[in-house]
Each structure stands twice: as C-alpha cells, then as structure tokens.
Design a protein that fits this description.
Elements lengths: L8 H13 L16 E7 L9 H14 L3 E7 L9 H6 L5 E4 L21 H7 L1 H13 L2 E4 L7 E5 L13 E4 L4 H6 L3 E4 L2 H9 L5 E5 L14 E4 L8 E4 L1 H5 L3 H35 L3 E4 L2 H22 L1 H12 L2
Parallel strand pairs: 1-2, 1-3, 6-7, 6-8, 9-11
Antiparallel strand pairs: 3-10, 4-10, 5-8, 5-9
Helix pairs in contact: 1-5, 2-9, 5-11, 10-11
Amino acid sequence: MKDLTKSGVSRRGLLKGAAATAASFSVLGAPALAQGKRKLRYIAFINRNTVWGKPYDFLSAEVDRLSGGDLEIEYVGGSDVIGGFDAPEAIANGVFDISHSANSYFAGAMPSSISLASGNASLDELKASGAIDAYSDLLMQQRGVMLLGTPLSGVGYVFQTRGDCSDLSYYEGKKVRSIPLYDPILESLGAIPVTTSPAEAYTAMERGVVDGLGWPDIGLLDFKFYEQAKFVMMPDFYQLRTASLINPNAFNSLPEELQGVLLEASASADKIGAAWAKEKRNAEHAEMEKAGVEFVSLPDDQATKFIGLTEEKLWDNITANAPEDAARLRPLFDNA
C-alpha cells in the first residue's frame, strides 16, 4: 500500500468519532476480499448511465489508486436496485455501505439536510467556516449515517420552461414539475408545483401536464427536455451539492490506514467531480443551444429579488421544521 499524507485532519477526526459513537448500530461491515483486502458496496440514487452515476467512477478510481487495490468500491446499482428516497435508510441499516444521494432525499428524517444547497460558496469555504462539520454532525445524530463527501458541486439549479421565462410574471398560474426544495419558490411566484419522479418528468412535459420543470443545471440533456422546453431562466439558484453517505460501522470496520485512504480518495474525487460538473454543464449548454434552447436572463432587479427569495424560502423551511438546526447552520453558511 502506498504511503499516505493525512489530509483534512479535523474532517477525519469527525468521521472517526462518529463511527465510534455508532458502534451500537446493527450493521454489516466491509467484507474481506482476501487477506488484508476489503470491499464496500455502493449504490447511486439514479442509474449509472446518467451524470449521477459519474461520482462512482471518480471515487472507485481514486480508492483503487491510493489503496493499491487493497480497498474496492463495488457498484451494486442505482434506482433499479433501490429507490433514491429509500437509499439513506438502507445505508443507516447496513444493507449497503455507501450511497450517492441528493440532500433533499433524506429531508424527511433531517429537515435541515437541504441547507447543503444554500449560497454559492465553494466546498473549501464551507469547510473553513465549519458548515460541513456542523452538517455532518447533525446528519450522524438524526440520520445515523456519516457524510463521506460531496461528490458533485459547483453548479446551480434552473427552471426550464415551454415559454419565455425572462420575466418572473411568466410563472403566474403555470404548472411546474418540482421537488420540495423548489415548492416554496414556485408558490411564491404564483406557480403550481407538480411532483413527478425524474423518469416521469419528460412525459409530463410531452403531455402538457406541466409547463416547465426545476432541475439541477446538469443532466438536462440525459432526459432530452430541450425537445419540449426551449427556455432556461438565468440566473441559476442554490448550489448542487450532492452527498456521499457511508454506514458508520462499515467505515469503522476498516483498518485505520484504509480509513485514511477512503477519506483522502473521497476528498480527491470530490474535487474531480466539481471540475467535471462545471465542464459538463458548459458542454450541455452548448448542445442545448444547438437544439434551439435559449438561456434568458431576468432583469437585474428581478434577478436580485429572485436569488433573495430562494434563500429566504430555504431557510424559512428549515427554521419552521428544525429551528435549532437553522440557528446553528445558517451563520456558518452565510459566513462561508
């Protein structure tokens, strides 16, 4: 095994402490491949042939590189194996070891999970402010899982619509495919949020059930929404920061050196993922423009109002459902 330089000491200390705290959980650990070798089972919240499957490639490659093959990340499946909303519970219960998840997918058990989308700070800035450590602590307390990393970041969310959305008045009375993260925003704009799964979103557009949709500003090409919706509103809002969750006993069952490997590999994969996401977004925008999509900008005053509205609604939601978490987290995100 290669010699490693320990990185992110406070982060490692947090994770090891969380793993020790979770010793009473009834979970499955990492099975041995051969003498000295270990395996962790990985699931994604959407299938691997989409952009949401790429973090597995980044993490598994970095783990293999840094461990010299002593640790393997085995891809078990995506939504074909378990629904995205069920995956965090499966990790907590030890059915699988690691999952790639959207933060809103575990908001039921941890209302403040959506805080991970707040603001536009970089991951390094959020770590420096203490926001990531505080978030990780709450995740362990309330969800029984550890935050291994944030494998996709650096891009925002957008609304893509059938009609010209260069003015906020467009949304009045419109039906827009949504998730709980967007619902309060759309309602404030006079729109009607409609809940569908990602797989049903295109059909809803095609059949006229919705006039647009909210989506991360990456992966829009996977579902070919440009065939039905020719306008994307700018500016984008929030930050896409997905989560790698790990079962605490699976982590704690690894030898200390492999724990270090996994943490260093995850940190490296997160940086790779952030750079890749930005490049992918730019490439997708170019392809969408070729397909006739227009990226339309709000007037400056409306853009300022809109961004303020998104942050207000996010923190109002957290404050209403988890006031102590909001009081702890918001200053850390605001000051990042």
